[in-house]
């Protein structure tokens, strides 16, 4: 009789083992957690302030309804401060462009110890509190009544505070690019200094100029400490008016004033990110190296 073959034993399936996340995974998760918590810590108060400026009654919350009434009241009472802040920022930007771009170029070209000392003196207003710089301006120029009561006095204070940002941004770009070789080549072809400056220096320094300009505008519009000490009742800028609304009016009006402030400053910050401002030129140099690598790899045997 034929014997029934015994069934073949099934191959043992390997048991899948759950791998415990490695140290790198835990480190990355911790970094993400800290980043998200920090973002929440910074963004949640801003969102709550915006919501407060759009609610009918802050203490009742969103359930009381949404309204643009407080924004209308802020614009009616403080639209003069908005236009004054824009005028001061525009004047500050113009002066820093005329003085800061040549200064940054000269400091980048000069390698003497005197230029480094001058650069440190230019950066000094950033290290000092705004109130200290304002007090120094009051001590020196406060006796000139007409100048003290004018908007030009605030513009001078803003120039003192923002000029280092323009100078450092332009100097960083001019130092990273090989302007000396380009200028020497143009000079050998008979180009004057003005021609070299307008056709070589300014185009190559454009990233630093854009970075400095955006920094000057945002800092001038948002500067409070120095402006608070220099302003008069007729020269009240946007940040000073914001402080007044929080101190003397309803919290809804103060929050609506904050919304107005965001409407003015956020486009500048977005523009800075959208333009990919790189004052040091490191990102553009990295892109050039990446673009060169494929072409060089194809030529090599």
TrEMBL record:
Principal place of residence: membrane
Pfam families: BPD_transp_1
InterPro entries documented for this protein: MetI-like, MetI-like_sf
Coiled coil regions, renumbered to chain: none
Transmembrane regions listed in the UniProt entry: 26-59, 79-108, 120-144, 150-171, 209-230, 256-277
Membrane topology: Multi-pass membrane protein
Subcellular location: Cell inner membrane; Cell membrane
Nucleotide-binding is among the record's keywords: no
Key words, A-Z: Cell inner membrane, Cell membrane, Membrane, Transmembrane, Transmembrane helix, Transport
Domain ABC transmembrane type-1: 82-272
Family stated for the protein in its record: Belongs to the binding-protein-dependent transport system permease family.
Protein name, as recorded: Spermidine/putrescine transport system permease protein
Origin organism lineage: Bacteria, Pseudomonadati, Pseudomonadota, Betaproteobacteria, Burkholderiales
């Amino acid at each position: 009789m034929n014997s029934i073959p015994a069934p073949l034993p099934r191959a043992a399936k390997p048991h899948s083992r759950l791998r415990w996340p490695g140290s790198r995974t835990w480190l990355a998760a911790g970094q993400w957690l800290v980043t998200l918590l920090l973002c929440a810590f910074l963004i949640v108060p801003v969102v709550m302030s915006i919501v407060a400026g759009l609610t009918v009654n802050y203490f009742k919350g969103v359930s009381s309804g949404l309204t643009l009434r407080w924004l209308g009241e802020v614009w009616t009472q403080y639209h003069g401060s908005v236009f004054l802040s824009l005028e001061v920022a525009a004047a500050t930007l113009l002066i820093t462009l005329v003085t800061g771009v040549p200064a940054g170029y000269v400091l980048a070209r000069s390698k003497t110890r005197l230029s480094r000392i001058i650069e440190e003196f230019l950066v000094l207003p950033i290290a000092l509190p705004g109130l200290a710089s304002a007090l120094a301006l009051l001590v020196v120029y406060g006796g000139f009544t007409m100048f003290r009561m004018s908007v030009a006095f605030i513009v001078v204070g803003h120039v003192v505070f923002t000029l280092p940002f323009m100078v450092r941004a332009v100097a960083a770009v001019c130092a990273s690019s090989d302007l000396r070789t380009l200028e020497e080549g143009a000079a050998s072809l008979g180009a004057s200094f003005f021609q070299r400056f307008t056709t070589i220096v300014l185009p190559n320094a454009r990233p630093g100029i854009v970075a400095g300009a955006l920094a000057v505008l945002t800092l001038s519009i948002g500067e409070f400490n120095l402006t608070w000490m220099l302003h008069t009742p007729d020269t009240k800028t946007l940040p000073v008016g914001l402080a007044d609304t929080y101190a003397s009016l309803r919290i809804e009006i103060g929050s609506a004033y904050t919304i107005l402030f965001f409407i003015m400053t956020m486009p500048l910050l977005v523009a800075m990110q959208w333009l990919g401002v790189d004052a040091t030129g490191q990102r553009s140099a990295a892109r050039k190296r990446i673009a060169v690598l494929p072409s060089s790899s194809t030529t090599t045997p």
